[in-house]
Amino acid sequence: MSVLPQSDQKAVYVNAMFTAIAQRYDLMNRLMTFGLDQGWRRWATKRIKQPQAIWALDVGSGTGDFLPILQQAMPQLSVVGLDFTLAMMQAGQAKREQDTLGHSFINGDGMHLPFEEAAFDIVTTGFAMRNIVDIRQAFSEMARVTKPGGKLACLEVARPKNPLVRWGHQFYFNNIVPIIGSLVGGNNRAYTYLPQSASIFPQPPELAHIITECGWHDVTWKQLGFGAVAVHIATR
Hints:
Helices cover 44% and strands 21% of the residues. The protein has 9 helices and 7 strands, in the order αααβαβαββαβαααββ. The chain has helices spanning 10-21, 25-32, 37-48, 66-73, 86-96, 135-144, 163-185, 190-199, 204-213, and strands at residues 55-59, 78-83, 103-107, 120-126, 146-157, 217-224, 229-235. It has a 7-stranded mixed sheet with strand order 3-2-1-4-5-7-6, with helices on both faces. Helix 2 (25-32) runs antiparallel to helix 7, helix 3 crosses helix 4 and helix 7 (163-185) packs antiparallel against helix 8. The chain is globular and about 45 Å long. The termini are far apart. It catalyses: a 2-demethylmenaquinol + S-adenosyl-L-methionine = a menaquinol + S-adenosyl-L-homocysteine + H(+).
């Protein structure tokens, strides 16, 4: 049974869903990715590292997993995490208080970024675009607020190319993850939404085309995690 909302209901649905799972979100991410998700963020960060960068923005930041990774790689950075769901940022703020790095959160919509043009040197987004109503508008907004020559890193789910690996991944994603989500995250519906939203999300070549149409160039991608994750890198 589909749990995917209609387009005009998606924003409210996604906000309520992430509010419900905010406190267990990080634990679930580590469990269902076998702890690999942070390594994927570090891999992406190495590809967009700029010694002269001053400002970075993480769109759909959630609890802010990208923020310390960016700043550890580029200590001179001021990093802003933007998210649609207040509860996710509140959960992330508790983590941020455990370190002394200069991170900040702002509540906002990825389709209407509350920043001036060319405000950031680097923009990242990790596993958030599936939850945006209009990804073209979101990528266009990220281009608008990025300086010429600035970098984008986008992490999203993908389908493995190898048929056997793809079958195993789909079985795990569609059958095991919802069970883990019910037992650990306390929300079977949210972790049923995850594989269902992934199944209709553009695959890497199509996503690269969309990113290019939205004002980015030199768009490349690489699939990690046996093909289950795609990292797109682009230049403004």
